[in-house]
């Protein structure tokens, strides 16, 4: 037994001097110290040793195991350190090398205007509601006091998907969806894409609108005018004035076109305002009583105003863009001019 112990100690010494990697170390360690390893086997053999020899042999064997454990432990520490050093050396990067240039993107002018409008109106207490782009005839026209034979349907060349379904021509359709589902007080903003069969320098078959609707007791045209003054100053500059001109929309009565004093020339007359000193920015009016009634809102109790504007139009005015196509072509040379 003593010889066997000595032999194992020598084997360990020999094996240890050869070990290079932690994997190798683990294998050798298991071979001697593992559950079925050499030292454990000797421990089991103790049963066959005469009782009087057991204590002294046991001591020797325990000492061997302890020495072996210590050797392996210190070796493990050394090998791990060496391996880590090697890995660091291999994975070393030169942090002084110049980085790859990642050019910043910019928001599209439409997005900028949309965000600005939402920010202005939500500051006045409006909530955003987005309706569907595929609408049925009822929401886009009939409920907006524009029945099938109404001449105002010709104001908007509509893309029909079926006799009843169409691509909405105006975000005004969202007004009805809101009024059907919510009772006054109502104060919503409805941005979104709209579609019309129309195409030139200032028109596109797809464009975006922003609709607003306020319904409550005692709402008057003065409230509309006051709110628009505030809005125009915020978006075009504090010196800007607004004026209302009579107009016609089937879903409002009275209806108005809203002009702002030209922020380019201050109202003297220039190319932007075509010499008039005023620029048309949106349509608006008091919600027609028939529209309220159709949505189950009593027009003798509640009144409201609505307004709708083209987001591209506002963007073109605000940034001096002369062709609407620029807003849809995605030309990076154009878009990068809007970097914040
Ligand atoms: N829907 C109209 C259009 O597309 C714009 C408009 C006018 C919206 C008057 C309104 C409004 O809410 O009151 O031409």
Give a concise summary:
The chain is of the alpha+beta class and 340 residues long. It contains twelve helices and nine strands.
Task: Provide tags for this entry.
binds 3,4-dihydroxyphenylalanine; alpha+beta; seven-stranded mixed β-sheet; two-stranded antiparallel ribbon; 19% strand; 340 residues; 41% helix; 9 strands
Q: Please indicate the percent range of residues in DSSP E strands (runs of 2 or more).
A: 15-25%
Provide the low-confidence segments as ranges.
Answer: none
Number of strands: 9
Which sequence of SSEs, written as H and E, runs from N to C? HHHHHEEHEHEEHEEEHEHHH
Which ligands does the model contain, each kind named once? 3,4-dihydroxyphenylalanine
Q: Count of helices?
A: 12
Alpha carbon gap, first and last residue: 85 Å
**Strand order across the largest sheet:** 1-4-5-9-8-7-6
Mean pLDDT rating: 92
Give the C-alpha Rg: 41 Å
Largest sheet: 7 strands, mixed
Give helix % range: 40-55%
Shape assignment: elongated
| Category by helix and strand content | alpha+beta
General description of the model:
Helix content is 41%, strand content 19%. The protein is α+β, with helices and mostly antiparallel strands and 340 residues long. Strands 1-4-5-9-8-7-6 form a 7-stranded mixed β-sheet, with helices on both faces. Helix 5 (109-123) packs across helix 10. The radius of gyration is 41 Å and the shape is elongated. The relative contact order is 0.10. Bound molecules: 3,4-dihydroxyphenylalanine (DAH).
């Amino acid at each position: 037994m003593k010889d066997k112990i000595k032999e194992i100690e020598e084997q360990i010494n020999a094996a240890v001097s050869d070990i290079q990697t932690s994997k190798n170390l683990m294998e050798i360690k298991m071979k001697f110290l593992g559950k079925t390893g050499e030292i454990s086997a000797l421990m089991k053999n103790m049963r066959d040793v005469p009782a009087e020899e057991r204590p002294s042999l046991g001591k020797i064997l325990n000492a061997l195991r302890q020495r072996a454990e210590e050797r392996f432990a210190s070796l493990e520490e050394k090998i791990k350190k060496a391996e880590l050093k090697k890995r660091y050396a291999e994975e070393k990067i030169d942090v002084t090398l110049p980085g790859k240039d990642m050019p910043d993107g910019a928001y599209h002018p439409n997005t900028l205007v949309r965000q600005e409008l939402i920010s202005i109106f939500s500051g006045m207490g409006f909530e955003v509601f987005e309706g569907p782009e595929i609408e049925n005839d009822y929401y886009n026209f009939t409920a907006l006091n524009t029945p099938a034979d109404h001449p105002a349907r010709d104001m908007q060349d509509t893309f029909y998907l079926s006799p009843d379904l169409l691509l909405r021509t105006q975000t005004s359709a969202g007004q009805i969806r809101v009024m059907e589902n919510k009772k006054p007080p109502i104060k919503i903003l409805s941005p979104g894409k709209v579609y019309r069969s129309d195409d030139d320098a200032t028109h596109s078959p797809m464009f975006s609108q922003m609709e607003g609707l306020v319904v409550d007791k005692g709402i008057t045209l003065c409230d509309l005018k006051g709110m628009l003054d505030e809005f125009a100053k915020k978006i075009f500059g504090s010196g800007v004035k607004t004026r209302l001109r009579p107009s016609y929309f089937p879903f409002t009565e009275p209806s108005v076109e809203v002009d702002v004093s030209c922020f380019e020339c201050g109202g003297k007359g220039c190319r932007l305002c075509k010499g008039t000193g005023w620029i048309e920015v949106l349509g608006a009016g008091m919600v027609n009583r028939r529209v309220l009634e159709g949505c189950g809102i009593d027009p003798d109790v509640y009144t409201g105003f609505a307004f709708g504007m083209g987001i591209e139009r506002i963007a073109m005015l605000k940034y001096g863009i002369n062709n609407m196509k620029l807003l849809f072509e995605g030309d990076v040379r154009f878009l990068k001019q809007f970097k914040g």
